[in-house]
Design goal:
single chain; 129 residues; mainly beta; five-stranded mixed β-sheet; 13 strands; 15% helix; 51% strand
Length: 129
């Protein structure tokens, strides 16, 4: 009986390990476009813990800038994609995809972001092309 309890405890610890071991990285945004942009982001800072934030306003060629909302640095877990919706300040260019998200009563068709990891941080890069 005691062996069964020890095995059950060990199994419970092993099963819950991956959820606790997720690596979270701070998110930075880099506007590599010659246009000013407004950006909305959908990210996961935990298992199935998705959030939409925005708009973040960037001048042309601005960044990289660490993303913060209400004084809180945004983070992303390694095993989830990041999605963005962006539009140029002049309204002529839109970056969108097929991942619909609602934010403050508006629907945004977000696209999977172009990301890289540098110095332990997650970078999102937006280009004009």
């Amino acid at each position: 009986m005691r062996t069964n309890l020890m095995l059950a405890a060990l199994l419970a610890a092993f099963v819950s390990y991956p959820a606790n071991a997720q690596l979270r990285r701070t998110i930075s945004f880099d506007n590599n476009c010659a246009k000013g942009v407004r950006v909305w982001i959908s990210h996961a800072d935990g298992y199935r813990n998705w959030h939409v934030h925005g708009p973040f306003n960037y001048s042309s060629m601005e960044g990289p800038t660490r993303l913060e909302d209400n004084g809180v640095t945004l983070t992303q877990t390694d095993d989830h994609a990041v999605y963005i919706y962006a539009e140029s300040v002049d309204g002529r260019t839109v970056w969108e995809g097929d991942y619909p998200q609602q934010f403050q009563g508006t629907r945004f068709n977000m696209m999977k972001a172009n990301t890289s990891i540098r110095n332990g941080q997650l970078y999102i890069s937006l280009t004009c092309s």
